[in-house]
Amino acid sequence: MAESKKEWYVLRAIAGKEAKVKEVLDAAIKNTDLGNYVSQVLIPTEKVYTSRNGKKVVKEKNLYSGYVFVEANLTGEVIYELRNTTNVIDFLRGRSKSSMPEPLRESEVLRMLGAIDDSQNAQADDAYDFAIGETVKVNFGPFSGFTGTIREVNPERRKIKVEVKIFGRPTDLELENTQVERV
User: Fold this and answer.
1) Cβ-based neighbour number of residue 130 at 10 Å
2) Long-range pairs of 103-107 with CB within 8 A, sequence gap ≥ 24
3) Which pLDDT tens digit goes with each residue over 69-107?
4) Which of 56, 84, 128, 140 lies deepest, with the highest CB count within 10 Å?
5) Closest by CA position to 49, among listed 163, 126, 159
């Protein structure tokens, strides 16, 4: 069998069921001969920090809701198998129903794969975004709701010092950069 190049394609899935599609496809790749034609199934996500009941919670959020990316060689029954997977609507393709699925361009694939790395680097760069003298609002912890001015930025530790007024007296708080937001 001549090995042809695998390319990235986009499957449209029911929104909210992307993880289930990935799970089903990963099992099929592992247990059937679909693994010879499909090498990767990917759902690009980013980490989102939220505050719930006074505690910082990290959640994974899909970058592209309703889409699952597959690296595959679409020969023979592979298109049929992927299209008829549970919760999959169809491939992302041209306007006519008879058009073949179009592979992603190399630049799009690199941007998609790079977006995953960039989202992890973005948290490291958050400390650099704040400037001394900038007004911020504390959104986490016992001082939630207080507004203050940034006095010091420590990018290595991802900490900032914020001066807030408590009972009319200035008080310095050392906070993580994720605990404040711009006003």
Assistant:
1) 18
2) 103/7, 103/8, 103/9, 104/7, 104/8, 104/9, 104/10, 104/69
3) 999 998 888 888 998 999 999 888 877 777 788 888 888
4) 140
5) 126
